[in-house]
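Propose amino acids for all 177 sites.
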């Protein structure tokens, strides 16, 4: 059974097989978690990203982690919230599913996610948390090869939301707080 971990903190510090980056379509760096990941990984990450030719919203691409403790960075592009009539929920769900698919292809056993789209992209946090948890739960129903999936919440609001919501998606003995 895949373990689910909730972490309140900085995703760049995690020594897991893959951390997921909430990138933008250029993949050439930005603010928020993207900026933190590029700073921690070093300039080689930007060089590797330049070769990827960007990424569509909802899709994912992978690079090494370079100076990060994580082996890989999976770059996914969340949707910008535009009121909910623009397939935002479906696209956010695709971010989680496509990231996990890539992690599986690269034989990652531990994957850590930030709260994609809930920063400057403005996706409502409660809806984003439901979407993230539901997508990951669906994926884990079909694929049992992951050891642990972590949800890394940087802000207190997301941390509390996930803490409250996790037990309605996963069993108590599966979750580590
Ligand atoms: P987006 O453009 O997808 O909204 P942001 O980086 O602005 O991306 O925000 C996504 C989430 O990442 C936010 O919830 C923010 O609090 C969080 N975040 C910012 N820095 C870090 C970090 N170092 N580790 C984990 N999460 C972070």
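Proposal:
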């Amino acid at each position: 059974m895949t373990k689910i971990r909730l972490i309140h903190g900085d995703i760049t510090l995690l020594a897991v097989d893959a951390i997921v980056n909430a990138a933008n379509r250029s993949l050439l760096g930005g603010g928020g978690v993207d900026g933190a990941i590029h700073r921690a990984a070093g300039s080689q990450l930007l060089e590797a990203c330049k070769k990827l030719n960007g990424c569509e919203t909802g899709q994912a691409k992978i690079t090494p982690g370079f100076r990060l403790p994580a082996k890989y960075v999976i770059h996914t592009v969340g949707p910008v919230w535009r009121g909910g009539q623009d397939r935002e929920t479906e696209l956010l769900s695709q971010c989680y599913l496509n990231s996990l698919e890539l992690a599986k292809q690269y034989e990652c056993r531990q994957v850590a996610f930030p709260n994609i789209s809930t920063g400057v992209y403005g996706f409502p946090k409660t809806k984003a948390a439901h979407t993230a948890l539901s997508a990951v739960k669906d994926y884990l129903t079909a694929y049992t090869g992951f050891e642990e999936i972590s949800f890394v919440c940087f802000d207190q609001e997301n941390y509390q939301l996930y803490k409250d919501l996790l037990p309605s998606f996963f069993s108590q003995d599966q979750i580590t707080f």
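The CA atoms of residues 8 and 153 lie 5 Å apart. The pocket of adenosine-5'-diphosphate is lined by residues 10-12, 22, 32-34, 36, 78, 114-121, 152, 154-155, 158 (CB under 6 Å).
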